[in-house]
Amino acid sequence: MASTATAPKTKRIPKNNCSTPCNTRYTTAMELIKQHGQELSHLAGEASTLFAEFADSIRPEPKVKVAPKYRFYVDSDMVVVGHNPEMADFDNPRGELIEVRYFMVAEDAKGYRFSYGFEETELGAEVVFQHFAPAVSEWAERRPAYGSQAYTESNTGMYDLRDEMEADLGPNWMSHPQVSSDLRLTLGAL
User: Contact at 8 Å (CB) between 100 and 110?
Assistant: First the structure.
């Protein structure tokens, strides 16, 4: 016995239902627009509405603008990269080889500074920073910015004064007669 169920009927699109003669089996886009302009504009409106709703659903929430925690820049120092006794002379008795090295610096709003890297070029320091640098909390701490809140909090000014006095008067500068007399005069005036 044969099955009585039949497949659902599909609507067939006529091969050539255009106002202009067409030699091909399918109509061109321009012919569709001419023939079904109002229907297509309605469909285009629905499509743009659906697209706008879809775009809104996947658009990330606007982020609140937050001031950056650190300011990053490249800095450099002259450092000893080796020794060559053949290059020793009166100005350089140990024959130190001195070159410029570049590194990235992160400075926060208070003036605390941290550094990372030790590269031969500025570009090298930036590349290492962009691709290999760990979190700033793991960077080496550097001297705070002069005059900043961090400079005063860490008492860097006193350390600078002590270093300057040691450079001028030697390691026992507190017992130097000039300093002792100046301290007596200062304390006596108080």
Answer: no
Q: What averages of pLDDT result for each successive group of 10 residues across the chain (190 residues)? A: 52 48 49 59 59 60 66 93 91 92 94 93 91 91 92 88 82 73 58
Distance from the Cα of residue 56 to its chain's centroid: 28
Q: In 124-182, which ranges are E strands?
A: 140-142
Neighbours of 144 (CB within 10 A): 20
Q: Please report, in angstroms and rounded to a whole number, the separation of the first and last CA atoms in the chain.
A: 124
Instruction: Retrieve residue 95's tokens.
Output: 């024959």
Beta-strand runs (E) in the chain: 70-83, 96-108, 113-119, 140-142
Domain assignments of the chain as residue spans, ordered by start: 70-145, 155-190
φ and ψ of 31, to 5 deg: -65, -40
**Beta carbons of 136 and 106 less than 8 angstroms apart:** yes
CA dist 178 and 7 (Å) reads 113
Q: Are 117 and 127 in contact (CB under 8 A)?
A: no
Query: What's phi and psi for 133, nearest 5 deg?
Result: -70, 135
Residue with tokens 């024959």: 95
